[in-house]
Amino acid sequence: MTEPRGPFAPNRDEVAAKVIDGELIIIRLSDGTYYSMDNVGARVWELIDRQHDLAAVIETIAAWYDVPIDRVGRDTTPVVEELLAERLIVPCAPAPADRPGAEARPSDLLAYDTPRLNIYRDMGNLLALDPPTPGIDDLPLKGGKDR
Amino acid sequence: MSAAPAMDDAPPCVRSLQHAFAEARARHPGQLREAAYTFAGRPVVLRIVGARLAERIQRPFAHLRRRDRAADPLPLQIDLWDEAETGVPFPADGASPELEQQWLACDGLLRASSDGRYVSFQYQDSITLLDRRGQRMIGCRRNGSHLSRGECSKPFVVMLTIWYSDRGVQILHAGLIARRGAGVLMPGESGSGKSTTSLAGVAQGLEFLADDFVGLERVPGDTFRGHSLFSTACLTRAGLGRFADVQRHAVEDRFPEEEKPILFLAEIYPDRLIATVPIHAIALLRIGAERTEIQPASRPEALRQFAASTLHTVVPRPGRAALEMMAELVERVPAYWLLLGPDTRDVPEGIERILACVEERGRV
């Protein structure tokens, strides 16, 4: 498999994501599978969300956590590949200010740990056996809603 | 009663339902049962032709019934007739071409017009159609004496999920009980203890709003209100065995052996059912503890519980707006683990302690 380069962006047509208290929760709306990443993983997602390419993500994380860049690369690349394989992120156009170090170091960083994508397929697997369940977003009311 | 807007511009399949309802009503004027309700603060009128059907469909909404005249314009009018009681046939054109989008859902067929205005749900011998712009629901049941368990305990749940969602009320898979008007929301997948905890609470004096489906609404002032949808609780036969006082009230009807009996709590605890409460706390349930106790829960834990449970249970599946609302809820409302011991009599004390912690936090 070719190493991903990016830049990427969250697959906004298919997923909803939210960071709460440093933990990222992602829902794939088409089948209800949900994912989580904490600490470094959540930071990786935030940088991806700002359309940095993979090299910029790795350099930024290495600088923020003061960890050797090759270790961050070894840790981060498989996670980005997994995000792509799960269709949680998709390739996109580069952001205008895409350069390493452009992001200010957050003040609330925890200690570095290997980013990991946790996948909760328990019910997702069951759903996969059934026809896709319709979502409320599949039923838009054209012309707006009257509350 | 106020009339809902007419569906004059409706497609033929909708008009055929309207005409059939009108015919049932004209043939059996003495069989019309009309009652007014409040669903999430909005007036609703339910008109049913067929006494047996009306008795069954109205029963889970008993605690939401209102005595005064409904407002005008009416946010929702629901019209329903019983083929067996009226002789007016179940509509044959379930496959009407106007509702061209379709999905299998909850063992039934959900269909929608291309503009999303008309949505219908057909399940076994029932069909219900919602006109989202006309604020009207209309449908038929083949035989009001032989309804499914879901229809007896949570009528119209799929159509109402859409109607509520259109009004900014998100249906969550959670129980909701309250103490002196302070609501405690309990998300969790099936088997997590929602029904047992809700029933244990109401049996010992707490207020009941829901054992598994609840409406959540943002209100001004950055707070949330929880709305009761149904007055029913459904427990396994084994679970009911822990509540000797209410066991005799359980309705088993002709449901298959594997289905849970229904408790109509408005009939058992008429003073303990309420329609709406502000949400003061979130209780994440965990069964199997040696004794009932509480522990603080993180906001990500709370969001995971809401998301996992709701996204896999509510149909139509909630979307992006629901996740946003759940995330906002866990950001604003404190969450605790309620570790459930074997004695259900300890539940009110656990709830009491959670609310005391919330009060204490509010003072700090």
Gist of the model:
With 147 residues, chain A is of the alpha+beta class. Chain A is 32% helix and 18% strand.
* Spatial gap, N to C terminus of chain A: 50 Å
Would you identify the regions of chain A where 5 or more consecutive residues have pLDDT less than 50? Answer: 124-129
What share of the residues of chain B lie within helices?
Answer: 25-40%
Tell me what portion of residues of chain A adopts beta-strand conformation.
15-25%
Mean pLDDT across the residues of chain B is 91
Structural class label of chain A = alpha+beta
Please mark out the parts of chain B with pLDDT under 50 across 5 or more consecutive residues, or reply none. Answer: 1-5
The end-to-end distance of chain B, rounded to whole angstroms, is 50 Å
Computed Rg of chain A: 17 Å
Q: Largest sheet of chain B, order of strands side by side? A: 3-1-2-4-9-8-7-6-5
Approximately how much helix is present in the residues of chain A?
Answer: 25-40%
- Number of β-strand runs of chain B: 19
Which chains share the greatest interface? A-B, 32 and 42 residues
Count the strands of chain A?
A: 6
User: Biggest β-sheet of chain A: count, sense, barrel?
Assistant: 4 strands, antiparallel
Strand adjacency order, main sheet of chain A: 2-3-4-6
Number of helices of chain A: 4
Radius of gyration computed on alpha carbons of chain B:
21 Å
What count of helical segments of chain B does DSSP give? 12
